[in-house]
Amino acid sequence: MKNEKMAALRGDRTQKEMANEIGIPVSTYAMIEAGHRFPRRELQIKLARFFKLTVDELFFDQAGVEEKE
């Protein structure tokens, strides 16, 4: 299932820009956002901190997807 929350939080930035900011490969970021890969716990935490969310909010609560500034 596509991670709509990550897509919304990305806003106008490209997946490449996001991956570079986070420090992960572009293919990894793209696969997680598209729902083709679920990140290991360490990367879940890194992504959640980057977006200033909890792991649960980012990966398990897909209801009420909103763009965060």
Automatic annotation (TrEMBL):
HTH cro/C1-type domain sequence ranges: 14-58
Tell me the InterPro entries matching this sequence.
Cro/C1-type_HTH (IPR001387), Lambda_DNA-bd_dom_sf (IPR010982)
Sorted alphabetically, the keyword list is: DNA-binding
PROSITE patterns listed in its UniProt record: HTH_CROC1 (PS50943)
What's this protein's name? Transcriptional regulator
An example of a GO molecular function for this protein is:
DNA binding
Concerning SMART domains, the annotation shows: HTH_XRE
Pfam families documented for this protein: HTH_3
Organism annotation: Tumebacillus algifaecis
Give the top-rank taxon of the lineage listed in the UniProt record for this protein: Bacteria
